[in-house]
Design a protein that fits this description.
This protein is α/β, with parallel strands linked by helices. The protein has 14 helices and 12 strands.
C-alpha cells in the first residue's frame, strides 16, 4: 500500500486508530491450547472476542481505554500512541508527578497520555518508586468520556497492586483524583501557568502530526518468524526501576511484580517450554554434559504458557520473588539434574 493509499484510508476513518492487535504475539496464536483471556476479562465493553488460536477486536465497540494493553503479558495488544512509552523518562526523581489525558489538562505540567487506562501495575509501581512523593492520576473528565469506566478499572487495579506489593507505603502515594473541584484546586495561576498550558497544547499538536505521519509511513503487520521472542516494555521499565533504586523497601516492592519458577522432578529437559516461551525467559543449555533449564526471571512476564504447554506438568510459576530466589532455583535445578543422571 502506497503512502497516498494510506492517507486516503486514514481520512476515510472518522476515529483515529488507538489500538493494534499483533496476533503473532498472542499466547493463543503461539499455542492453541492456551486459555489466556486477560484482555477479554479486562475489557469493560466486551470489544474483544477470543477464539481458538486468535483474538478478535471489534473496533466499533472499542472505547479506546487501552485497559487490555495493561494486562496482556505478551503485548499482543498495544496502543498506537507512543506517549506512554516515553512517560517514564519524564518522571523526575523525588518529585510529585501528575498524569492526565488530553481532555483533563489543567496546568500543562502534567504528563499527557492517550488514556490512563493503559497504566499497568508495572507503570504505577515504577512511577511511585521514582517519585517517592506522589503520583496523581487526574480522572475528573472520565465521566464525560466514552471510556467512563477507567476510574473503576484503575481503582481495582490499584487494590490488586496493593495486595501484591504489601503495605509498604508506596501504593499509598498513588492518588486517583476523580472530583473536578479537587482536580482544579491548588493549580497555579498567572503567566507561568498560561505558558505551561499553551506549551502543552503545542506539544499535543506536534505529537499528533508526528504520530499521523509515522502511522502512514509504517508498513502494517511486518512479517516475523513464529519463534520471535518479544520483551514487553513493562518488563524493561521494571528492570530500570530496580536498577535505579537503592532502597530495600522499594526493591522488595518491585521484586513482588516479577515471577519465580519451580522445576519438578518430572522435568526431562525436552526444551519445549523454552521454545514456547514468548519472552525468552526460558533457555536450554548443557553444562558438563548435563542438560539444564535456565530461567531468567527478569525476562518473565508471568504469562504461564510454559506451564500450560509442559506435558509433564513439571513447571510451577508463582508471582513474586525473594532476594535469595535465584540461589533457591539453582539448587532445585541441581537436584533435578542429580536425579536424572542417577
Amino acid at each position: 500500500m502506497s503512502l497516498v493509499d494510506r492517507l486516503a484510508d486514514r481520512l476515510k476513518n472518522s476515529e483515529p486508530l488507538v489500538l493494534e492487535v499483533i496476533s503473532r504475539r498472542c499466547l493463543r496464536t503461539r499455542f492453541h491450547g492456551s486459555s489466556c483471556d486477560r484482555c477479554a476479562q479486562e475489557c469493560p465493553v466486551e470489544a474483544i472476542r477470543l477464539e481458538v488460536g486468535k483474538i478478535i477486536l471489534d473496533p466499533k465497540r472499542c472505547v479506546g481505554c487501552l485497559a487490555c494493553t495493561a494486562v496482556c503479558p505478551a503485548e499482543a495488544l498495544i496502543g498506537c500512541d507512543s506517549r506512554l512509552a516515553a512517560a517514564a523518562a519524564k518522571v523526575a526523581a523525588g518529585k510529585a508527578v501528575s498524569l492526565c489525558c488530553e481532555k483533563t489538562i489543567r496546568t500543562g505540567d502534567e504528563i499527557v497520555l492517550p488514556c490512563l487506562g493503559a497504566l499497568s501495575d508495572e507503570h504505577l509501581m515504577a512511577f511511585a518508586v521514582r517519585s517517592k512523593v506522589g503520583v496523581h492520576l487526574y480522572l475528573a473528565g472520565c465521566s464525560d468520556c466514552r471510556a467512563s469506566s477507567v476510574p473503576l478499572i484503575l481503582t481495582h487495579r490499584l487494590q490488586a497492586l496493593n495486595h501484591k506489593v504489601g503495605d509498604n507505603g508506596l501504593t499509598a502515594i498513588i492518588r486517583l483524583i476523580t472530583n473536578k473541584e479537587e482536580a482544579e484546586a491548588g493549580h497555579p495561576t498567572g503567566a507561568s501557568s498560561r505558558r505551561s498550558f499553551f506549551r502543552a497544547f503545542w506539544d499535543i499538536s506536534v505529537h499528533s502530526a508526528t504520530e499521523t505521519m509515522t502511522t502512514l509511513q509504517a508498513e502494517s503487520n511486518p512479517r516475523e518468524k513464529p519463534t520471535h521472542k518479544h520483551q514487553p516494555g513493562r518488563l524493561t521499565l521494571l528492570r530500570q526501576a530496580l536498577a535505579e533504586t537503592g532502597e530495600e523497601n522499594a526493591r522488595l516492592a518491585l521484586l513482588s511484580l516479577f515471577y519465580s519458577l519451580a522445576v519438578g522432578n518430572d522435568c526431562n529437559f525436552c526444551g519445549a517450554c523454552a521454545g514456547m516461551c514468548p519472552t525468552g525467559a526460558l533457555k536450554n543449555s548443557r553444562e558438563e554434559m548435563r542438560k539444564q533449564l535456565q530461567f531468567d526471571w527478569a525476562r518473565c512476564s508471568g504469562c504461564g504458557l510454559c506451564q500450560q504447554f509442559c506435558r509433564k506438568k513439571a513447571l510451577t510459576l508463582s508471582a513474586g520473588r525473594l532476594p535469595n530466589a535465584c540461589a533457591v532455583e539453582k539448587e532445585i535445578i541441581r537436584q533435578v539434574n542429580s536425579v536424572l543422571t542417577g
